[in-house]
Amino acid sequence: MKKFLLIFLLLPFIKSVFADDKFESNYIDDVVGDAPTGVTVSSAGIAFEEVQNGAQSYVYFSQTLANDIYYEARLYGKYNYLSQNPLVNVPVSNIKNPPGFGGSAFVGYNFHPTETFDVTPYLRFNYLNNMAVVYEDSNGNFMNSIGYAEMLGVRLAFKVIKDFTPTFDFRYGFQQVKVTGQMDSNYETTTGTINQSVSAVIMGFSYKVNKTWAISPYYEFITQSNSPDSTASAPYNEGGFNISPLTATLQQVGIKVGAFW
To answer: How many CB atoms lie within 10 A of CB 33?
Structure first.
């Protein structure tokens, strides 16, 4: 929350840096899936996110077409901390964990119930490599993972204040993570599977600093229930990965900087 307060206090300074005499306040605020009716709008930029087990960023490109169909693509990179994902109960490593990478694709439709309120339902697809589960230690033990997710979501955009658009995003879906590794030297490398149901609530806002640039800070709260198979849930001394079947939560904050045209 302190990060959001700092960003909010810096908004007047940011706008003065990017000020444009031809600024048009009735244009898009770089909200995914949000565009004036009958206009094709493109957007591209970069985002930085702080999560409990790492720091990650992504670059993105999106378009909302004149017929209100929108799509977006993201490419992720992640620096994994020694502490691990609390959603899956992975231990703290004593050496640097491998980095993660992945991608996301969105497709949706931008509805305009009123001039100041947009609703954008969408489908999201994720590919995650060493972003859900990853571990490595100096004893040769390791876990690597590949995850796939399909999610259904909806984003609400409230264009009621000049240059400032609050947004609320809700999504729910399913993710399958394949974990490969060895956590006990008495066992060979093996593979387990974690089936997960994931829900997320994202709250933020988009602030337009001139007619082509916007910044969008946000907060995300994730709830995840795990259903590991026998290998994934087995203790390390039985050749498994000791993945917890309990439901857990994760929080992250981020900021997106984008240009639109």
So the answer is: 29
* Model pTM score: 0.83
Confidence band (pLDDT; 50, 70, 90) for 85? low
Look-up: residue for tokens 């409990």? 52
DSSP 8-state class, residue 36: -
> Could you identify the residue written with the tokens 């309990």?
246
- Which residue bears the tokens 């988009």? 206
| Residue carrying the six token digits 């691990």 | 84
What is the rounded CA–CA span in Å between residue 20 and residue 226? 50
Token pair listed for 193: 């599977």
Contacts of 9 (CB under 8 A, 6+ apart): none
**Distance of CA 220 to CAs 167, 174, 251, Å?**
12, 17, 6
Cα separation of 209 and 131, whole Å? 33
Tokens 């947009």 appear where? 118
pLDDT 10s digits, 138-153: 888 899 999 999 999 9
The band of 92, judged by pLDDT with boundaries at 50, 70 and 90, is confident
